[in-house]
What does this fold into?
Amino acid sequence: LSNLKLLDLSFCQYLQTIPPNVISRLSQLEEPYMGGSFHRWAIEGTKEERTNACLSELIPLLRLTILCVELENIACFPKGLLLHKLLKFEVTIGHDSIKCYPNSNRLCLREIKTPIPNEVKNQFQSIEELTLFCLEEINIIPDLDIWGLNSLRYL
It folds into this structure.
C-alpha cells in the first residue's frame, strides 16, 4: 500500500478504527477522501494510549493535494496541518452533510462549544467556503477580521 495515491473511504459509516501510524506510512498518498465515514480521530498529545490515527499523520505526506475529512472534536485538528498548501480541501468539524469530493476549499464548523484554536484560525486565509452552524457562545467575527478571509466566496 505504500504506493497508494488515492484512498476513498467516503460514506463507510461503520469504519470505527484506523490504527495509529497506518496513514503516515502511505507516503505516496495524494487524495484521501474520508467524508461521511471515519471521524474518530485521536487527539494528539494526550497521555492515553491511542487506538486510532491522528490527523497529524497527514502532515509528513508531501504529495497530498486534496483532503476530505470529518472531525468529531475541534481538538483533533493538528498544529502543523497547512490546508492552504492543498489544491482543494473539505474539513468538517462537528457533524454536517459533507460533500466528500471537494471542488473548493471548504471549512464547516458545526456545534462547536469551545474556543476555536489558532491551528484552525490559521486556515481562514485559504477558505473559499465557510459554514458556521450553532457555535455556542463563541464570537468568531473578530477572528475572521484578524485572520482575513481574502479567498472567501460563500459564507
The helical segments are 118-121, 141-147.
